Write a sequence for this structure.
């Protein structure tokens, strides 16, 4: 299942002789990383949740991390070089800081576990006699889970104070126990991700030789020429791409402040053109161009790039086909767990694709997993390669299962039936593996499914009175799922894998690096959490990002009530479409193994539903088409020569993100997003 690449974007520097001396984790790189973790922990919640501008984190090549890398290379190192060349940050040190920033920009930003603060409040704030949310939540939620029930009874002032503001007065007595409980769960998840990342690295980075496209830009930036300057900037094509992105984003940003400045249109509202049947059945078709995504997409293998945009549009054409067969979109089941991103039969195909693809990934790496299991029980000896991992395989193996056991125990203690707890977290792990594969092989800046695993699980095993998911299980399960799994764009498994890949290839000491990563996670999480709670009681959650603070945070109640009342669905039909997705995925993988020309990759089917692909498909198409045309008429040599242009395009877009975040912050402007929001 190795990736078919034209030119491996991130070559491995591992050797079979005596291992080179590993460094990178020095006093100053640690100090710099922890300082940045504190800064990002405080600033990113303000940018993401209060200003609602382009995210500095919430992606797997975060703008904040690239900005730090540029600052070290273009400002700090030249100043240090004036004193002595020995004082400059080495490449391994700059990459160590970059790896730490993958986490310190991701953890306090929007996505994954950072939904838990508004999610454990919103359902209580918006509860009314009409929606009866309290009737479905308060009897079944443990007081240690939600601050609004800290005394065992419902206290409306806790949620009301956060949403409406109290002038800064925080009821810490109500928050202490829930914060301790949720922090324990969240750090168990981080430990599970870290251990899984250790076990995945060798299989995916070496045996399957995945491309890791998102590492190409930081590697190019950190490479110095003999004169100590950044070699990347000596290529004129870099400046052409950089200048193009800067021109476009500068013009569009100035247009917001000065409407007389001409705007370069990057968004086309397609709704005005798709007004008649059958094309109006396709629903929302977004046509947007993001220069950074165009640049990164140029690095993808042709079949991955093609599959991402083609299978997204193909999922839309299924609605046209259904209409032609007498099933207009309005008549098709639209389960609430999909939140309007797709109709049920397409969503279940995505579920089947994820389960089948992850099963195939596990099967492909079976020899590797067998070796790790044998190491864990003492039946195999450590190899030389294992010494370069962030953890010994036995520690990673038992650490993974120890963390998972704690997570399951926490979930069961919250009131979820053990069968559902096991299925829920197994599904979560399957989704996490599939999405991490998308980052490692397809280079998507952010990944998500568009739903949380509890949704399809309920529609497949049954929910309602007398079902596996009854009211007593639905409330805590919905609270956990909505708070941790609703929007996976901020989960840390891809960052662990990318960090371990960089550390291995660039001779960065992996075990001190892992300690530094967790130190940065602790600092950025603690400060970010305090910042989020403080902002709410200061200015009021109603003044913050509406999707995060109000719309998404109502999902615990929506799902708990929907499941507790029972579902009007055909589980047999749901399983049928899950089977369709699984069979198509297995067929694609079989065809890829047999026919070199086969153009489709299952990753496209996995990403056909969520907002991420709605926003990025056209940019991916442009990157894919550019690569195909250049390699078709110019060959692989032309592809290598023109790649710096596309990397410059991505870099220019990211630089403008940082520029406009600073300008907008100074001017107080909100809602200015340059990347998918």
């Amino acid at each position: 299942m190795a990736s078919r690449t034209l030119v491996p974007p991130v070559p491995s520097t591992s050797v079979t002789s005596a291992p080179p001396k590993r460094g990178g984790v020095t006093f100053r790189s640690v100090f710099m990383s922890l300082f940045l973790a504190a800064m990002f922990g405080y600033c990113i919640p303000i940018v993401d949740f209060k200003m609602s501008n382009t995210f500095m984190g919430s992606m797997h090549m975060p703008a904040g991390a690239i900005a730090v890398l540029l600052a070290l290379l273009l400002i700090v190192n030249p100043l240090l070089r004036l004193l002595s060349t020995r004082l400059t940050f080495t490449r391994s040190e700059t990459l160590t800081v970059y790896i730490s920033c993958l986490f310190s920009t991701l953890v306090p930003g929007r996505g994954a576990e950072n939904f838990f603060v508004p999610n454990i409040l919103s359902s209580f704030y918006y509860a009314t006699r009409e929606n009866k949310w309290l009737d479905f939540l308060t009897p079944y939620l443990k007081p240690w889970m939600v601050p609004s029930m800290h005394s065992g009874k419902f206290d409306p002032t806790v949620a009301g104070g956060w949403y409406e503001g109290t002038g800064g007065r925080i009821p810490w007595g109500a928050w202490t126990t829930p914060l301790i409980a949720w922090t324990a769960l969240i750090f168990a998840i981080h430990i599970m991700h870290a251990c899984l990342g250790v076990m995945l690295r060798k299989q995916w980075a070496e045996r399957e030789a995945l491309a890791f496209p998102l590492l190409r830009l930081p590697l190019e930036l950190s490479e110095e020429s003999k004169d100590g300057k950044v070699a990347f900037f000596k290529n004129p094509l870099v400046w052409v791409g950089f200048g193009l992105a800067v021109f476009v984003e500068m013009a569009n940003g100035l247009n917001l402040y000065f409407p007389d400045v001409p705007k370069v249109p990057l968004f086309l509202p397609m709704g005005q053109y798709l007004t008649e049947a059958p094309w109006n059945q396709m629903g929302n078709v977004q046509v947007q161009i993001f220069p950074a995504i165009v640049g990164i997409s140029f690095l993808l293998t042709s079949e991955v790039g093609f599959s991402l945009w083609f299978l997204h549009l193909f999922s839309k054409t299924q609605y046209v086909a259904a209409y032609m067969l007498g099933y207009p979109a309005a008549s098709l089941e639209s389960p609430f767990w999909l939140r309007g991103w797709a109709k049920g039969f397409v969503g279940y195909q995505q579920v089947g694709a994820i389960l089948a693809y992850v099963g195939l990934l596990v099967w492909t790496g079976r020899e590797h997993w067998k070796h790790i299991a044998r190491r864990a029980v003492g039946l195999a000896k450590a190899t030389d390669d294992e010494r370069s991992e962030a953890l010994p395989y036995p520690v990673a193996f038992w650490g993974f299962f120890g963390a998972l056991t704690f997570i399951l125990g926490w979930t069961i203690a919250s009131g979820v039936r053990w069968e559902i707890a096991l299925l829920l977290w197994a599904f979560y792990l399957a989704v996490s593996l599939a999405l991490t594969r998308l980052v490692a092989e397809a280079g998507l800046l952010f990944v998500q499914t568009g739903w949380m695993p509890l949704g399809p699980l309920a529609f497949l095993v049954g929910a309602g009175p007398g079902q596996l998911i009854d009211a007593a299980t639905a409330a805590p399960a919905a609270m956990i799922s909505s708070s941790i799994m609703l929007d996976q764009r901020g989960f840390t498994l891809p960052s662990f894998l990318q960090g371990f890949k960089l550390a291995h290839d660039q001779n960065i000491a992996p075990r001190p690096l892992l300690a530094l990563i967790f130190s940065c996670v602790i600092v950025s999480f603690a400060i970010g959490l305090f910042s989020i709670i403080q902002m709410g009681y200061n200015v009021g959650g109603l003044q913050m990002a509406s999707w995060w603070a109000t719309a998404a945070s109502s999902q615990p109640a929506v799902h708990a009530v929907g499941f507790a009342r029972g579902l009007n669905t055909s589980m047999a039909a749901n399983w049928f479409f899950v089977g369709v997705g699984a069979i198509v995925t297995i067929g694609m993988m079989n065809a890829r193994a047999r026919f070199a020309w086969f153009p489709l990759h299952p990753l496209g089917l996995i990403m056909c539903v969520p907002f991420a692909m709605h926003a990025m498909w056209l940019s991916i198409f442009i990157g894919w088409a550019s690569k195909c045309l250049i390699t078709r008429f110019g060959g692989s040599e032309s592809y290598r020569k023109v790649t710096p242009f596309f990397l410059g395009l991505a870099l220019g877009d990211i630089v403008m993100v940082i520029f406009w975040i600073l300008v907008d912050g100074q001017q107080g402007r909100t809602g200015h997003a340059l990347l998918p929001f």
